[in-house]
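WARN no homologs supplied; continuing
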Amino acid sequence: MADIVEKNGQEFGKMRRIFFPIYMYELKKALPMGLMFFCILFNYTCLRNIKDSLIVTGPGSDAEVIPFLKGYCVAPCAILFMLLYTKASNTFTNEQLFYVTLTPFILFFGCFGFLIYPHLNVLHFSAETVAAWRANAPAFLKWPLAIIGNWSYSLFYILAEIWGSALLSLAFWQFANQITKTSEAKRMYAFFALMAQFSVLLEGKVGEWCSDIKNKVPEGVDPWGLSLKYMMGIVVLLGIVAMLIYRWIYKRVLIDKRFYDKPELPGNTGKGKKKMPLLQSFKVIFTSPYLGLIVALVVCYGISVNLVEGLWKKQLGMQYPNPNDYNTFMNQFTFYGGIASMVMLIIGGNIIRVCRWFTAAISTPLMLLLLGSLFFIFVLFKETLLPLLASLSTTPLFCAVILGACVVAISKAVKYALFDLTKEMAYIPLDEEMKVKGKAVADVVGGRFGKAGGAWIQSLLLLIPGATYFTIAPYTFTIFIVICTLWILSVKALSHRVEAATEKSAKD
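OK structure emitted
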């Protein structure tokens, strides 16, 4: 009887409307989408924590290497990926494209844990060799040489960064946008994300257990190497599970007219249709004001959060120089950040459902501006608080690590609950070509250039003789405020276009 009431369109009860605004018959679509998101986000979280642990604690490396990696390695590789992806979208169906995108990643990460890391003594240059290079090289090559010296760590970092753009921002959300109506997205997108956030909690505990084993292994066994084997094995397994779920959705869900009523499956062009050539696609994409504003949002987010995270990770590396300890803290941070994200998704889902697009979208830049400013001010003036912190039996470094963790966790919770969901809703009214290729440009290239922009700013400042994250903090703080202001203005400009496009799509 309950199912009949729901299908007849009656309103949910008060509590159901807040916590579970999904009809029972819709679970056939919502559950597998949420589970696929779960697998992809678990892997993203695991890889994100490990990539930082490898780079920050690697031989001859430090947190200052990160902006050089993001700015001069990840960004060019993201552009290459975008070109290959958009080219492949003209050759493969959407289903095939998902498998072709995911497979190389899980192959590499499996090889890293079981083949590459156990043989680093053969594959890497010795720490002494790299130290000699850096001692005799110009100052501007100091950190690039650390990237070369730890080349497999650097490659891991690059692919882990692109995983977030390729599989999370692009492949999953592109698929969701293609098979979900705007009216459904207001209810379902927060549900997808809430299911996925359970993976963050699980990864936090699993990653903590895998990392916190240095006192539990026999003498002569590398605890970090063993941790990597466990975690990379899980990454490969969940990657395969994600592909199986994707296949099941195509074969069991999209054939049901209640969930997908278009004549062709998403991404299948049919015999009589021809996809837009690559160069012509880019011409349309790069001259679209609508897409340009989405790119502006993505770039501004990437720059602003990178300016905060760079300073935080520097202090985190000083507090936890051992890779197991560093990764243990990051997984604890992940667990509590996941709780914050789940709470925010419940709140954010209801904000999206009952408020205008602008109200939901403006929340992220305002929150990051407030919290990021608080963190910068504490770091810049923490020495004046030394007597007070000493009386509390703590140190400025530890307090900066904890405050930075809180700021980053809350900012990411708001990002997952509001920024990501409102951004994805902005794609729904667009045509199929813009959903696939336009999204590849906006999310992969825009996302990478956002992070690269923050990295370029920091890396250029770090080339100043004697510069560190602490000495450049006043300059990065000023730039942070400017970027957040531009972000707010971009949200305002895009909101008018989103509302107009949504109304036009509803009429069509």
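The radius of gyration is 23 Å.
OK
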